[in-house]
Write a structure and sequence with these properties.
With 271 residues, the chain is α/β, with parallel strands linked by helices. The chain is built from nine helices and twelve strands. Strand 9 (140-145), helix 5 (148-160) and strand 10 (168-173) form a beta-alpha-beta unit. Helix 1 (27-40) runs parallel beside helix 8 and helix 7 crosses helix 8 (240-254). The structure holds magnesium ion. The site of magnesium ion (MG) has 8 residues, from loops.
Length: 271
């Protein structure tokens, strides 16, 4: 089986210091957590940033701040920027403003769904425009599929040449308002992927351990981090380091080796 790519998603849009005081929200905190997680085995960093009020934003300067620091400290990790719908204005110019930065990947949701209290609004026009900007800047999209329809949309975009294969998916499961994180649903999603795709999973909240373990067994890759889960199974507060350590521990038990950053680049066709 291919080696396991671990993505660390340290920050996201939802965590606050009240929900979990270990949430990295400032540039310095985000960089420190990514640094520690890279040492533990993470090869991709899925990056979100917060403004001066610690609210989610798509502000290019803040993304640049994190990337510059990672580059200065020579942290060898694939940088993947979020173009998600919760960073402010829902326009291509706002959500795609950071796509001229020197990074290898960015997230791209290929359909719309609900979050707990807002809409994950991604119109066909917006998806097309963000995809174009990514390819123009030599950035590989990670297709974020919150349900099976988003996989089918991605296949449609692939046929039209708007997306270029082989595709890499992140199957986002158990977001309130999206596909529940169950083993059956994971199998359904994996069976729906176009041939030759690579894929990763993120299970939100309590579904995480089960979904991650299944993905490791099935040959998929995994994402973890406080963006996706705030507590460990026993109810204690999680940290990004503890979450990466847990993935490594499960992979070790199951006999799946962890990919280095260069190995992850090869698997994803980034080299
Ligand atoms: Mg995200």
């Amino acid at each position: 089986m291919e080696k396991l790519i671990i993505t660390i998603a340290p920050t996201g849009n939802v965590p606050t210091k009240e929900l979990n005081p270990h949430s990295p929200l400032t540039t310095q905190e985000i960089v420190e957590d990514i640094k520690k997680c890279q040492k533990l085995g993470a090869s991709i960093a899925h990056i979100h940033v917060r403004d001066e009020n610690l609210k989610p934003t798509s502000d290019r300067n803040l993304f640049k701040g994190v990337i510059d620091r990672l580059d200065e400290e020579k942290i060898d990790i694939i940088k993947q920027l979020s173009t998600g719908a919760r960073g402010g204005e829902n326009t291509v110019d706002w959500r795609g403003q950071m796509l001229d930065l020197n990074v290898e990947m960015a997230s791209l949701a290929t359909g719309s769904s609900n979050f707990a209290s807002s809409v994950n609004a991604n119109s066909p026009q917006l998806i097309r425009a963000l995809a174009k900007k990514m390819y123009d800047n030599n950035i590989k999209p990670e297709i974020e599929a919150f349900d099976v329809a988003m996989i089918h949309n991605a296949v449609k975009f692939l046929k039209k040449g708007i997306l270029k294969g082989p595709l890499h998916f992140n199957l986002v499961m158990n977001v309130p308002g999206s596909i529940p994180g169950t083993p059956k649903n994971l199998m359904f999603m994996v069976d729906s992927l176009p041939p030759g795709s690579t894929w990763s999973v993120c299970g939100i909240g309590y579904s995480q351990v089960q979904i991650i373990t299944m993905s490791i067994l099935l040959g998929g890759h995994v994402r973890t981090g406080l963006e996706d889960v705030l507590k460990m199974t026993d109810g204690s507060l999680a940290t990004n380091e503890l979450l990466v350590k847990r993935v490594v521990r499960i992979a070790n038990e199951l006999g799946r080796e962890i990919a280095t950053t260069d190995e992850a680049r090869k698997i994803l066709g980034l080299a």
